[in-house]
Amino acid sequence: MGTDLYKPLGQNRPAGRKPGPRLSRYSFLAVGAATLVIALSVYTMRGETVLERNDLQAATVSLPEQVTSEKQPEVEAAGQFDRVDPRSGANVERTLTDDGTVVTKFSPRSRDGNGPVLVETPRLGQDPRLAGTPNPNLLEDSPYGALPIVGPDGLRPMDQYARPWSGARGTRIAIVVSGLGLSQTGTQKAIEQLPEEVTLAFAASGNSLQRWMQTSRRQGHEILIQVPMEPFGVSEPEADATMLLSSLPVAENLARLHEAMGKITGYTGIMNYQGARLLSNAEALEPVLRDVASRGLLFLDDGSSARSTTAGIAQAIELPHSFADLTLDTQLEGSAILRKLDDLERLALRKGSAVGVASAFDESIDAIRQWIEEASARGIEIVGVSALADNPLRDEKSLR
Q1: Vertex 269 angle, CA 253 and 333, to 5°
Q2: Which residue in 85, 126, 77 sits closest to 102, CA to CA?
Q3: Do 104 and 185 belong to one domain?
Q4: Left (φ > 0), alpha (ψ -120 to 50) or beta: where does 300 sit?
């Protein structure tokens, strides 16, 4: 047995560590501060969910003044309940969650005509992908085919099928090429070669009108329908059976108007073909223009009659209307048409805008195409004729 058993306890222990330096008062303060920072960080991380829930509760319970002004129902148990403020224009649905939070959801509802009015941006133009397809909400069936009408929400064909423009206040010119549909080759050339900014007017007596309409709309053109009207020097027996006459009963003139309207869809308005006598007879013309206005269309007077009464009637019945300032191809020669187009530009520079009309002759198409390329480089904007129409409804909204 070793002698270790007999040695006093603790005499052979290894030497202990020397005591380290004592912590100063400032060291204790630094350690305490670090501990506090760590504790706050942990608390914030754990409380993030609570903070988010409180924010959600504040956001969802906050209601418009007209909603919060009423007494709120007491929440007694978890579940869902509905509440509708008749003045709010919305369905208000609240859900009580298990933790006591109330989540509020608003959704639109049908209005009863009272309370605040929802205002939306006016719609102008049509989705290019659907440009060849008429809006079914803007059509009504008739014995003459589908006729244009104002939609249930107030949308007018004039606005739906209008060619959009920049909205800038620069010089604007509208050019209308008429007589399309009478010649297959002439119509095809006009649609294919004229810039898309040019408005195309189709004769109601033309052929394959719906097909040409679809092609021209897909190309970006705004279009009109030309309705034959009574000129001077033609007696009733000599007149075409589709022509609107000052001597006919109102019902017969409207029937002939509707027959022309039903030949095509997708147009913004009506343009006269001839018609000096009818346009000068306010009594016979007013019912025709009233029908045009009621269907949300514009009327373009080709400016050929100095005795036309369309201006006064249009203002009285709030019909969107426009007048041609110049006929561009009275002389059917390229250089002469180009000079007329220059005259139209000078007129537009003085007035701010101008409207020119021409027929779908080869010379007219070639000159217009050439001139538009040059005018665009000078900062002239070519627009659809609807952009230049005197539009009482649009002008009234702009003054509000």
Answers
A1: 100
A2: 77
A3: no
A4: beta
Outline where 157-305 has alpha helix (H).
Answer: 157-160, 184-193, 209-218, 250-261, 276-280, 282-294
- What are the 10-residue block averages of pLDDT along the chain, 400 residues in total? 43 47 54 61 50 41 38 41 45 70 69 52 61 90 96 95 91 97 95 96 95 94 97 84 95 98 96 96 98 98 94 96 97 97 97 97 97 94 96 57
Structural domain of residue 92, as residue ranges?
A: 80-109
The H-or-E segment that residue 44 falls in is helix 25-61
Q: What is the length of the chain?
A: 400
Structure token pair of residue 60: 């969802």
H or E stretch covering 295: none
What do you get for the CA distance between the two ends of the chain, in Å? 117
SS3 138: helix
* Cβ within 8 Å of residue 218, ≥6 positions away: 128, 131, 132
**CA 226, CA 304: separation in Å to the nearest integer?**
14
CA distances from 272 to 242, 281, 359 (A): 13, 14, 13
User: Which pLDDT belongs to residue 60?
Assistant: 40
Question: Which residues, 6+ apart, have CB-to-CB distance to 110 below 8 Å?
Answer: none
Residues 291, 355, 283: CA angle, nearest 5 degrees: 30
Strand, helix or coil for residue 140: strand
**Any idea what the Cα angle at residue 206 is, between residues 339 and 136, rounded to 5°?**
105
Instruction: Please check whether residue 149 lies inside any domain of the structure.
Output: yes
Element of type H or E holding 299: strand 298-301
Beta strand 353-359 with 326-327 is parallel
Q: Answer whether residue 180 is part of any domain.
A: yes
Q: Supply the pLDDT for residue 238.
A: 80
Confidence (pTM): 0.69
One domain for residues 374 and 245: yes
User: Which tokens in the block code for residue 181?
Assistant: 């549909």
